[in-house]
Amino acid sequence: FNTYIYRVLKETHPEIGITKKSMGIMNDFVIDMMDKLATEAKHDLDIIGKETTLREWHINTATKLVLPGELKKHGVSEGTKAIRNFN
User: Fold this and answer.
1) DSSP letters of 15-83?
2) What is the pLDDT at residue 51?
3) Helix or strand or coil: residue 1?
4) Considering the entire predicted model, what is its pTM?
5) CB-CB neighbours of 82 under 10 Å
6) Which of 6, 14, 45, 73 has CA atoms 20 to 30 A from the CA of 58?
7) Taking a C-beta distance cutoff of 8 angstroms, is the pair 59, 37 a contact?
């Protein structure tokens, strides 16, 4: 995720750089967050039992359960926006 982290950093704070060690920490953080979201979404999928495909609402629910407060709101809105742009 290094490329994407760097792009977001430059988009939000073009004058700030990031060290290799800090990038590694951010990359580990993103991987951990993705793992938590995927695990929660799969748990939601297992409860239903019939489906085998993760859908938008599984990830949406996982986001609401894993992320706190404002991050939850931004995560859901940005995810919804990405799905709208993708379709």
Assistant:
1) T----HHHHHHHHHHHHHHHHHHHHHHHHHHHHH-S--S--HHHHHHHHHHHS-HHHHHHHHHHHHHHH
2) 74
3) coil
4) 0.76
5) 11
6) 6
7) yes
